[in-house]
Amino acid sequence: MAEKTGVIHGRFQCLHLKHMEYLLAAKKQCDRLIIGISNPDAGFIRTNIHDTNRSRPENNPFTYFERYEMIREAMLEFHVPREEFEIVPFPINTPELIFQYAPKDAVYYMSICDGWGEDKYRTLTGLGLQVEVLWNRPLEEKGTTGTEVRHLIIEGKPWAHLVPKSVYRYITEHHLDERIIRLAREAEEKQNKTK
């Protein structure tokens, strides 16, 4: 029997436990999971009509490599064998490039919680891909978000309970929490200057 390959994607700014629920649900459906990191670098970031804040620098504090390492360590923390997953760039904003990184003959898993999710669904099905929606939930049932985690870090409130242990360790050991705070301050200063 042929190995079933799945593809899943997200921004993972930062990787939290709801992301892990999503990744592990997809992994249960396939033998090998390819995890795509969207907005892999500034060249791929586009303003989204459903959420104009997604493209701002303060909302994209982690590099592709940092997100790669966090995902890898979290998947291993949750006992997924390393040979059963790959991590690749996933340029959802320039979909004509997706097949440079991910196979066309895989099953593409996703969740839909808002208009952006619906747009991505149309994009992927428009490419002729087999897309399976793991869950379709209203926005208020989405649960933890990267925005929420970043805001807690900025406000100096507890956030370790919302992310895998390996992610908390990675962010704090590499002082990435300090970068989140700095970028938020810079954005606030810039906004104040334009008032």
UniProtKB/TrEMBL annotation:
<keyword id="KW-0808">Transferase</keyword>
<keyword id="KW-0548">Nucleotidyltransferase</keyword>
<protein>
    <submittedName>
        <fullName>Nicotinamide-nucleotide adenylyltransferase</fullName>
    </submittedName>
</protein>
<dbReference type="Pfam" id="PF01467">
    <property type="entry name" value="CTP_transf_like"/>
</dbReference>
<feature type="domain" description="Cytidyltransferase-like">
    <location>
        <begin position="8"/>
        <end position="98"/>
    </location>
</feature>
<dbReference type="GO" id="GO:0016779">
    <property type="term" value="F:nucleotidyltransferase activity"/>
</dbReference>
<dbReference type="InterPro" id="IPR014729">
    <property type="entry name" value="Rossmann-like_a/b/a_fold"/>
</dbReference>
<dbReference type="InterPro" id="IPR004821">
    <property type="entry name" value="Cyt_trans-like"/>
</dbReference>
